[in-house]
Write a structure and sequence with these properties.
The complex is a heterodimer of chains A (274) and B (196). By secondary structure, chain A is mostly helical. In chain A, 66% of the residues lie in helices and 3% in strands. A two-stranded antiparallel ribbon of chain A has the order 1-2. In chain A, α2 (46-63) packs parallel to α5 and α4 runs antiparallel to α5 (109-135). The termini of chain A are far apart. Chain B has helices at 15-33, 53-62, 64-80, 90-93, 95-111, 116-141, 150-179; strands at 38-40, 47-49. Chains A and B meet through α4, α5, α7 and α8 of A and α1, α2, α3 and α7 of B.
Chain lengths: 274, 196
């Protein structure tokens, strides 16, 4: 079991590289990621997925984020991906060109290609969200989200409060990852084996880590609440922004490029199906 | 001090609730990204999750608003980090998770007068069942999962319910112990009589 998390957890980190992608308006980036994610979800053929990978490569190049950094965050996904792949291949229903078959299990070209396609799509979905967070500062992301969710305020949804909750959650992730690692190491050093034991024992062992994790996290929450109250935070009403977002021509251009890739992928997917 | 349903009305939103919900949501995300929130179980998905436990605890410790906000964070996270292709629909990934916070809070509140451990264990089980039944139900309604797959999920649900019940009890005990200001349990008074 992995204990060294904090090196590999890149989720929600912001890399201040000042690249052309970093400088774009967060609203544009959220929209573009939304479009590309939707295109990824509906992509059902290799050509469609490949087009989206080209788009990802373009973004990767322009954002100047080291590829090794992007891949590092996916390291923890590998086991999950392998499990999904194995199940997709073995349980593929009614394969026409089976290489090996036993009871309901089989290995077939259909199953293999579907498995690979699913993995490619999962990696891509992961890429869009992580790159959005690598290239956009959290406060910009929050401001962008708040503006885009503005219509919900008419339905009396507390948009600012909900966005603030998300911001706090993302800010706390690296902190709590380090804390979890520390707690697990402390237990391991005292001879605890987290990968052993039946369900009850495991529950108890996990509990021995989760209790201090929750207690410490809630203590931090109290401190942050005091700090925010001391600075007179009282939700979104009448709150002004220090930085005003401005939509420029390059934003429109970039959004159109993303849209073009998505449409091309959709069109290729349709052609492959026909 | 007993376990606090915190000051102010249960449904009003305030700074404290925002922060606590954010922090508990962060724990759910951390359990997900470190893959620490998964326990291997022999079935299709191959693992039981404890990622919904922070949502249950949000509902139990801080009331429905926090529970629902944590559920929202957990739901959005599982939608964005979807590895199966089934959770890309927010009706599957987000909505059921918001309800977890509500049902576990209701369970805890209705049973806490009888016994706090019982209430915590029950809300762990109810929260887990809310998660599974609503998510699987949604998948079946939307035609993404066949009825035939349901029996294969049973061992996973049982494992998740047991672990969630244990974890909810120990964390509620731990948190209320710390909040009560004591650092050790009393040697003389029986558990039921103690303040936590």
């Amino acid at each position: 079991m992995a204990i060294e998390f904090s090196r590999d957890i890149t989720f929600g980190q912001y890399l201040d590289l000042g690249s052309p992608v970093h400088r774009r308006d967060p609203r544009m980036k959220i929209l573009a990621v939304g479009i590309l994610m939707f295109a990824t979800i509906i992509a059902r053929s290799f050509s469609a997925v490949l087009v989206l990978y080209l788009c990802a490569a373009l973004i990767q190049w322009r954002s100047t984020i080291p590829l090794s950094y992007t891949l590092r965050g996916m390291r923890l996904l590998v086991t999950t991906l392998l499990i999904i792949f194995v199940f997709q291949v073995l349980f593929f229903p009614n394969p026409s060109n089976a290489l090996w078959q036993w009871w309901i299990l089989s290995i077939s070209w259909d199953g293999l290609s579907l498995g690979i396609l699913i993995i490619l799509r999962v990696v891509l979905l992961y890429y869009w969200t992580s790159t959005l967070m690598f290239t956009t500062a959290l406060m910009d992301l929050a401001d962008g989200m708040e503006i885009m969710l503005d219509p919900l305020k008419r339905l009396r949804v507390p948009v600012n409060e909900v966005v603030m909750t998300f911001v706090i959650a993302l800010k706390f992730v690296p902190l709590l990852v380090a804390e979890l690692e520390r707690l697990i190491k402390a237990r391991t050093a005292r001879g605890e084996r987290f990968d052993k034991g039946n369900l009850m024992e495991r529950g108890r062992k996990i509990g021995s880590v989760l209790v201090p994790l929750f207690v410490n996290a809630l203590a931090r929450a109290e401190v942050l609440t005091t700090a925010m109250n001391a600075r007179c935070y009282r939700g979104g009403q009448g709150r002004t922004k220090r930085r005003v977002l401005s939509w420029r021509t390059p934003d429109t251009v970039m959004l159109l490029i993303a849209l073009a890739f998505a449409v091309l992928s959709f069109a290729l997917g349709r052609m492959a199906l026909l | 001090m007993a376990v606090t349903q915190n000051a102010g009305s249960a449904t009003a939103i305030n700074t404290r609730k925002i922060v606590v919900a954010g922090v508990l949501g962060a724990i759910a995300i951390v359990l997900g990204v470190t893959q620490w929130g998964f326990i291997p179980v022999p079935n299709v998905s191959g693992r039981a999750t404890i990622m919904h436990v922070p949502v249950i605890l949000g509902g139990v410790l801080e009331g429905p608003i926090v529970g629902m906000l944590v559920g929202l964070i957990f739901g959005v996270f599982s939608m964005l980090q979807d590895t199966t292709g089934l959770f890309t629909n927010p009706l599957v990934s987000v909505l059921p998770r918001i309800v977890i916070g509500l049902t576990s809070w209701l369970t805890f509140r209705s049973l806490v007068k009888i016994n706090i451990d019982l209430a915590a264990a029950a809300s762990g089980v109810v929260g887990t069942l809310t998660n599974t039944i609503l998510v699987v139900g949604m998948l079946i309604v939307l035609g993404l999962l066949p009825w035939a797959a349901v029996p294969t999920l049973v061992p996973q649900v049982i494992a998740e319910a047991i672990i969630a019940a244990i974890l909810t009890v120990v964390v509620v005990r731990g948190v209320s112990l710390v909040r009560s200001g004591r650092t050790t349990a009393s040697d003389v008074t029986p558990r039921d009589k103690s303040s936590f």
